[in-house]
Amino acid sequence: MQTITEYLSAEHRHCDDMFADAEAAAAADDLAAALAGFAAFHQGMLHHLSKEETIMFPAFEHATGSSMGPTSVMRMEHEQMRELFAEMQAALDAKDTSTYAGLAETLLVLMQQHNFKEEQMLYQMADRTLGDREDIIRQMEALP
User: Fold this and answer.
1) What is the mean pLDDT of residues 14-39?
2) CATH 1.20.120.520 at 4-142, yes or no
3) CA dist 87 → 38, 77, 99, 128 (Å)
4) Domain ranges of the chain
5) Which has more confidence, 106 or 67?
6) Contact assessment for residue 105 and residue 34, using Cβ atoms and an 8 Å cutoff
7) SS3 of residue 33 by DSSP
């Protein structure tokens, strides 16, 4: 049986790989590849964040009786990421790979810290707290 930690951590790795591809393309001034890579990364991240915010976080909050704990911090960080995504898209649209690179550096640090907190704390807490982890994973898998 797969755990929430395993499932969502694997998604982090997949998104990290797409992010690295987009960053490498931008560094090589391959704007077309950077745009395509960022679009794939952006779509993957939005889908991942949606799984957490609409399925896993509410289930965890219901089980613990609190929405003011780690999930509130994660939601705030998700918003910070969304703001950076918009700025990065604008930089690419303006063909400004230098600004994109700077924003990507900021996002990388934020994602590394965020993923560590989720993988080492929140996901493991969810695995211990949520009764039917398989159902939670099925619901996340079914999310369009």
Assistant:
1) 96
2) yes
3) 12, 15, 9, 37
4) 4-142
5) 106
6) no
7) helix
Give the model's confidence band at 85: pLDDT under 50 very low, under 70 low, under 90 confident, else very high: very high
Q: Is residue 68 scored above 90 in pLDDT? A: no
b/e for 82-108, b at 16 or more Cβ within 10 A? eebbebbbebbeeeebebbeebbeebe
Q: End-to-end alpha-carbon separation of the chain, Å?
A: 23
DSSP strand E in the chain: where? Answer: none
Q: How many other β-carbons are positioned within 10 Å of the β-carbon of residue 62?
A: 12
CB-count exposure of residue 37 (10 Å: 0-12, 13-18, 19+): buried
Q: In the structure encoding, which two tokens stand for residue 90, read together?
A: 């604008």
Q: Helix, strand or coil for residue 94?
A: coil
> What's the confidence (pLDDT) of residue 110?
98
Paired tokens of 5: 């930690």
Nearest to 78 by CA among 52, 58, 104: 52
Q: Which pLDDT band, with edges at 50, 70 and 90, does 1 fall under?
A: confident
Check if the beta carbon of residue 4 is closer than 8 Å to that of residue 130.
Answer: yes
Give the predicted TM-score (pTM) of the model: 0.94
What percent of the chain stands above pLDDT 90?
Answer: 94
